[in-house]
Specification:
Layout (H helix, E strand, L loop, with lengths): L5 H24 L6 H14 L3 E2 L11 E5 L2 E3 L13 E10 L2 E10 L5 H18 L8 H14 L3 E2 L5 E3 L6 E5 L16 E4 L2 E3 L5 E3 L6 E3 L5 E3 L2 E6 L2 E4 L4 H6 L10
Antiparallel strand pairs: 1-4, 2-4, 3-12, 4-5, 6-10, 7-8, 7-9, 9-14, 10-13, 11-12, 14-15
The structure holds 2-amino-4-trifluoromethylsulfanyl-butyric acid (MF3) and cobalt (II) ion.
Length: about 260
């Protein structure tokens, strides 16, 4: 488990600010008829313009810069010629390497008009992330985050995916500790100032069982129910958690941030 100094955390933040900038640009491209590979091509051009490197491409053989997961796809959907359709929800997961440090974030966007229940699912994934972040204070334990996430998701009548976890991040894309999205509180490593964690609840409308498609990447819900994913890279500081992959603008508008005091 790596404890990062302030200077390193500001480097990790730079990488994450590239991630969030490109994700917000991608949001404007989301519309019925758009192919997911067009999103991937755009991200790849932009990341190069910003002198960064896509972190997922080539990672364990992953073939693209983005993960684009539509509807019942949970994570690791591979961009393709598939076109978005009105009413879809799409999770976009993006990671970059910039000057030696990694950034990682994911958001779920609606395509045109979606059902109120799909909207509720997306909002719950976001809200759940912030419930987890509230626990990210020195003295707490990793599974306090897990417990807060699971409790909130289930209180909203949704289920939390168990097959994937959040993770430490910084010098590598995936570092210790793993951060499960379910479990009892008070377990696992102590949270310390200087830790940097990617917190990433993945939730489903139905059951949490997962199936992997024949492409060996795309994870879907076994019952084909809709799934949403929301992820940010967060640093633990003495002043509280700092979400490195939100822009100042996004922080101002984030509905769940206001009630809390974050760094
Ligand atoms: N955000 C995901 C993660 O934290 C992305 C990994 S996708 C991969 O694990 F393609 F790189 F595997
Ligand atoms: Co991640």
């Amino acid at each position: 488990m790596i404890i990062y100094c302030q200077e390193e955390i500001s480097s990790i933040k730079k990488s994450n600010q590239i991630v969030t900038k490109i994700l917000s640009e991608l949001r404007r491209m989301i519309a019925p008829g758009v192919q997911t590979k067009e999103l991937d091509e755009y991200a790849e051009v932009r990341v190069k313009e910003m002198n960064a490197v896509p972190a997922f491409k080539g990672y364990r053989g992953y073939p693209a810069s983005l993960c684009t997961s539509i509807n019942e796809e949970i994570v690791h959907g591979i961009p393709s010629s598939r076109r978005l359709r009105e009413g879809d929800i799409i999770s976009i997961d993006f990671g970059v390497l910039y000057e030696g440090y990694y950034g990682d974030a994911a958001v779920t966007y609606p395509v045109g008009n979606i059902t109120p229940r799909a909207k509720k699912l997306i909002e719950t994934a976001e809200e759940t992330f912030f419930k987890g972040v509230e626990q990210m204070r020195p003295g707490k334990r990793i599974s306090d985050i897990s417990f807060a996430i699971q409790s909130h998701v289930e209180s909203q009548g949704f289920s939390v995916i168990r097959a994937f976890v959040g993770h430490g991040i910084g010098l590598s894309l995936h570092e210790e500790p793993q951060v499960p999205n379910f479990g009892l509180p008070g377990r696992g490593p102590k949270i310390k100032s200087g830790m940097v964690l990617a917190i990433e609840p993945m939730i489903a409308m139905g059951d949490w069982d997962v199936e992997i498609l024949d492409d060996n990447w795309t994870a879907i819900t076994r019952d084909r129910s809709l799934s949403a994913h929301y992820e940010h890279t967060v640093a633990i500081t003495e002043k509280g958690p700092e979400i490195l992959s939100l822009s100042d603008e996004e922080k101002k508008n984030a509905p769940y941030l206001k009630e809390n005091h974050y760094a």
